[in-house]
Amino acid sequence: MEGLLSVSVGTVFWASVAFLVVLFILKKYAWGPILTSLDERSQSIENALNEAEKARHEMAGLKAGNEALLREARNERDRILKDAKDIGEKVKAEIESKARENAERLMANARLDIENQKKAAMTDIKNYMATLSIDIAEKLVREKLTDAERQQALNQALAAEIHVN
Amino acid sequence: MIFSLHTQFLRLSRLAVAAVVMFLVVPARLLASGGGSEGKFNAGEVIMHHIQDAHSIHLIGDLTLPLPCIVKTDKGWDFFSSGVFMDEHHGFTRRYHSEKTGNTYALVHEQITVVEGADGHMETAHADLHAAETAPGHGEVHAADSTLRAEAAPEAHAAHSHGTPVTDFSITKSVFGMLLMLALVVFLFVRMARAYQKRRGQAPKGLQNLLEPLVLFIKDEVAIPALGKKKAMRYLPFLLTAFFFIWACNLLGLVPFSGGFNITGTLSVTLVLATMVFVITTVSGNAHYWGHILWPPGVPLFVKLILVPIEIMSVFMKPAVLMIRLTANINAGHIVILAFTSLIFIFAEKSGAAAGYGVGIGASLFMIFMYFIELLVAFLQAYVFTLLAALYFGDATQEHHHEEAHH
Fold first, then answer.
1. Mean of per-residue pLDDT scores for chain A
2. Please, how many CA atoms are within 13 Å of residue B300, restricted to the half-sphere of its CB?
3. Is the Cβ pair B241, A22 closer than 8 Å?
4. What is the spatial distance between Cα B121 and Cα B104, in angstroms, rounded to a whole number?
5. 8-state DSSP, B119
6. What is the ipTM of this complex?
7. Which range is least confidently modeled, A59-68, B163-172, B273-282?
């Protein structure tokens, strides 16, 4: 048991020297470079993550912008379509009303023409009748002058002639 | 994927079990030779022998590696191999005479001592005992254990009076193992650092993948919570070195056929680590830290009179506890495993070989279980040591405004 609990000067000496030498070597050639590299790497990973986060934010911003643009474009398109439709409607209505007006005007003109033609025809007829009547009267007068009997027959013939009309 | 992982795990666990069983069989044979031929089997002695530091590495059977001995006496320094003590039975019973200093050395209780007499032959009670042991009928006794039993025998204590211990700077088993593990740690981490420089900014690969989580664990889970981001960088080199050193040494103690290293169970080694924690804590202690120890604020005077001595004691107790915890835990694991191995021979001796084999099955199963626990403990103790050291450093460097929050 005393061997277990005793402290040997030699072991203490070697342990101290060896440990301190190793501590020095490792500090200079191992822990220094290793800890620096680990630090650098964690720094670079952190940076990369931050950048990725930033990029994601940017992407989200871009996407939102795109969507707004798209929405605007869609609205614009809708508006244009609606305008075009409205204009079309209006033009159509205008054309229709104009056509109706035209037609009405044409009808009215036609009606007026017919009326005029009718009036002209009536005048012609009246003129013809007058001429005819005068002719008949002329013939009558001439017959009367020659013979009473014949005058009578002529009258009757003339009267029959008039009946034709 | 899952399937291949599963088979891999099975293969690994089978390997582990095989290793443990082999590890158990060898000391068993060794112990059996001691227990069978030489009176009573003394489990306490066997266990203590196995967890104590030694001047050689006993790998397996008769294969023992001698280690360099460096001793200082009032006549000067002597350098020799511990092989000079080895006799023809691979026990360390011979003496060694140094021409340079004129000293004669012997290895008694794993301690190099200067003894009377100039030649390399045995003449002390220690030697007589050895002669008795190797008498006819005991020829096959294992040499390494003869020393052990010699120590156990009452006559052997006479050997003490014959020698004066020297100042021993030898590369003992623990020192050797420690140097080996430090070299491994340096090798691994310098290579890892080079990989970082070569592959700057790239994903880790190979060795980096293996070690980086551990380094990050100490950095992010131990140092930064205890010390804060800025100060952690100052103490991390010590914390990392201590963690990997302790863990590597703990694990070496669990490697079968490596000679049963017990580095972190050696008080001298943990003493050095604890002293370093103490020195760093004391040197980096700021006015706030010392103020709280020497004149705790917001406490009545009579309480201060009690508190201040306690606080001053705690300055020394904290590192001392670190030292004792680590040593005790590692020794406890080794002792439990050795005790269960000894159980087999105690039963074999008391109730015959069949009982020994019977107990052996149960004991082996339990030891396999213990081995897995020891693997966990090896990591856990390294972690606990590092964590507490970081907390002590954090205590010593805490800023004032930090403390005001809970006053």
1. 88
2. 2
3. yes
4. 10
5. S
6. 0.76
7. B163-172
Task: Dig out the tokens for B163 from the structure.
Answer: 């020698």
For residue B327 the two structure tokens come to: 């040593």
Q: Say yes or no: B215 contacts chain A, CB-CB below 8 A.
A: yes
- Closest residue on chain B to A15 (Cα): B269
Token pair for residue B353? 């070989």
B264: closest CA among B276, B256, B254?
A: B254
Between A and B, how many CB-CB pairs are < 8 A? 124
- Cβ neighbours, 10 Å, residue B226: 22
- Average pLDDT score over chain B: 78
Answer with the residue of higher pLDDT: B51 or B29: B51
B318-349 in b/e burial notation, b at 16+ Cβ within 10 A?
bbbebbebbbebbbebbbbbbbbbbbbbbbbb
Condensed to tens digits (0 to 9), the pLDDT of residues A101-149 reads 999 999 999 999 999 999 999 999 999 889 988 888 888 777 666 777 7
Q: Determine the Cα–Cα distance for residues B218 and B239; give it in Å rounded to an integer.
A: 8
Does A38 sit within 8 Å of B219, measured CB to CB?
yes
pLDDT > 70: what percent of chain B?
77
Q: What's the average model confidence in pLDDT over B51-74? A: 84
Judged by CB atoms closer than 8 Å, whether chains meet at B240 and A15 is answered as no
d(CA B378, CA B328): 12
- In chain A, what are the domain boundaries? 22-164
Is some CB atom of chain A closer than 8 A to the CB atom of B193? Answer: yes
Residue with tokens 């930033």: A54
Query: Residue B291 pLDDT > 50, yes or no?
Result: yes
Model pLDDT, residue B132: 40
Q: Which of B269, B278, B329 has the most A C-beta neighbours within 10 Å, making it the best mutation to test the interface with A?
A: B269
* Confidence (pTM): 0.69
Whether B247 and chain A come into contact, CB under 8 Å, resolves to no
- B236/A contact by beta carbon, under 8 A: yes
Number of C-alpha atoms within 13 angstroms, CB side, residue B111? Answer: 20
Considering Cα of A47, then A52, then A57, then A62, what sign does the dihedral take? positive
